[in-house]
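Many introductory courses stop at the sequence. We go one step further.
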Amino acid sequence: MNKKIMFVVLMGVLLITACSPKATEAPPARMPCSTIDDYETSEETDFYQSVVDQQPPITDEDWVYGNFDAPITIVLYEDFQCPACPGRSLGVKQLINEFPDSIRAVFRHLPLPSIHDKAYISSMAAEAAGAQGKFWEMHDILYINQQTWSGLPEKEFVDWVKDQAQLLGLDLLQFDQDLNDKDARAALEKTTQERLSIGMNYTPFMVVNDRVWRDNNPSLYGLIGIYEYDGYRDCPPWVIDEGESYLARLETSVGEIELKLYADKAPLAVNSFVFLAENGWFDDAYFHRVIEGFVAQSGDPSGQGVIGPGYTFVNETDNDLSYDRAGVLGMANAGVDTNGSQFFITLAPATDLDGNYTIFGEVTEASLPVLEKIALRNPQNALEAADFTNATKIISVEIIKE
């Protein structure tokens, strides 16, 4: 996810006044970073935010999936015939299944009848199922089978959706009455026209914690890091001394890995790593991505390779440093200046990474043999992504100031 970083450089030297007995350098109170709320918006995004601000609050009348009191709320304004909506809506549901304590989804109809001929009738089908307690089941059926019914004439769609209602065990007479309820249809059309008239004109239209979600902001995975894993809404305090040397001892399930940290060359990365380590962020985290002859990656407490601590910071590159051997410690990112908590250790030379990923340390020579014991794991393989049985785990991290 690309982010536009807004930060203030706080590395300056204290001003020397006439009455100062001597000049001293002071570290900043907090390291420069970009928090979950630090992102620039465009004029277009601001317009859509004004649309969001006009929407009613969530009530018991809304269709809510997940923990009603979850701290992260995703509101989905969707059209069941919209080709882009199944992936978004079903993906959000899967995310809630993975993080049930932290996220809830709210579905609101936004049929677009000018481009989708069954926009209204498919919404009515979901509502008719919902009247019998099966809204989300019909939601899934409509989206999973969208290509099956989307091209049907409306009459054939009605026959098809009645078959689905029967499979759900619904009272078909009641379902048919609700499907054709004129008052409910009029209310749906009225609400739709109100939303269209103020500029809510595309689907899927997604809102995260009352902010319109555009360009991956606000960061959904950043919020999960904060609420699911006790991440950070603010930039970390400055906890290191750039003039000192630091070691990090990773106790892992395959042995101890000792890291020499480059506080002088990559102070931001080292400060963040030390702060997170001292607060237990890496404890019980897996090496979730381990590619033979390439890297071993960790730093995401979920093990999915998507979670960060709630803040990001800029790249620090040094032309004198290179991923030219095994054992080089680098920051993983999702694009320039999006460093968070995930890090990797090279298992072989990988010089194509030079200049794009911060190097902030190295494995000490005595620990290099342990790298060969880290279990290989490719998260792009669905079976491996879901199974951590043989994955190598970081048990704890000790920071030592030399």
